[in-house]
Amino acid sequence: MTQNFQVEEDKKNLRLDIFLSEKFSDFSRSHIQKIISDGLVKVDGKILKASYKLSGGENIFVEENSPVETDYLPENIPLDILYEDADIIVINKIRGMTVHPAETVHSGTLVNALLYHCKDLSGINGVKRPGIVHRLDKDTSGVMVAAKNDFAHLNLAEQIQKKIAVRKYLAIVHGEISDNFGIITGSIGRDKSDRKKMSVTLDGKPAVTEFKVLERFKNFTYVECKLQTGRTHQIRVHMKEIGHPLVGDTKYTSRKNIFDISGQALHSHTLKLFHPKTNQEMNFTAPLPDDMKKILQELDAGKFLTTNN
């Protein structure tokens, strides 16, 4: 099975690997370069180098990759499965679980759990991230989808890239947001002074976050955030940028955390997508975790609410 793209005219002179990295924003650059070198990408029917500069108007075919082989071991870790079939599995990820292995993390991840539960996962994203179409930060909870084969993976990645899939999050932030609705824009890239952090920067990738106030409390606000793009730490960085960092987010605020929560108060609440095989619209919801419920209850006990209209 193949995935087909036509190069837009404004992508002229862009490298082939960079173009595909933009199309599949959750794939690593090295993996994009590998599938090109493996001959799985054709430009107008030709196998070219990753450095090939596009002219605009070309047709690009990405072929289905081979099944993934990995040294990471399956682990019998309980999963909160919201939905599963032969092509996809939808999980309610707990706060504190890393999504995929990294240099310092080799076990206890969602990938380890999926390898035990599913056996077969897509190989598009390489041996460290089999099946992972999009990710959540370790300390972000909630709904996410994984792919069991490459066709499903490519289809879901395209839905995310083209904004067909809809992802909404719930967050508790510092301060009282005055506007009921808002759109935050600001390109996101690596922080120049701390490479482990992201920041709004002129040379970053475009990022757009919509927010809606759900409830206001004294010194805090409960919001819903909708992603138009999916940059690393996007909601955390954007909310900090407008002066309302997330409760519990030690990376992006020095404000004291007075609540019983380990990590940022951010939850992937809903995910809308279309099934990669049947094209049926599917909507998934992960209930708010207990730690965030408790924070809202404690804030509500103060009864400093303003209207939400």
Order of helices and strands: EHHEEEEHEHEEEEEEHEEH
Report mean pLDDT, rounded to a whole number. 87
* Helical content (DSSP H or I, runs of 4+): 10-25%
Would you give the CATH topology of the largest domain? Answer: Pseudouridine synthase
Main beta sheet: 9 strands, mixed
Q: What percent strand?
A: 25-35%
If you compute it from the alpha carbons, what radius of gyration comes out, rounded to the nearest whole angstrom?
20 Å
In words, what does this structure look like?
The chain is of the alpha+beta class. It has 3 domains: 2-63, Structural Genomics Hypothetical 15.5 Kd Protein In mrcA-pckA Intergenic Region, Chain A, CATH 3.10.290; 81-162, Pseudouridine synthase (2-Layer Sandwich), CATH 3.30.2350.10; 166-268 and 290-302, 2-Layer Sandwich (Pseudouridine synthase), CATH 3.30.2350.10. The chain is 19% helix and 27% strand. Strands 4, 5, 6, 7, 8, 11, 12, 13 and 14 form a 9-stranded mixed sheet that branches. A 3-stranded antiparallel sheet has the order 1-3-2. The chain has a two-stranded antiparallel sheet with strand order 9-10. Helix 1 crosses helix 2 (29-37). The radius of gyration is 20 Å and the shape is globular.
Summarize the structure.
The chain is of the alpha+beta class. The protein has 6 helices and 14 strands.
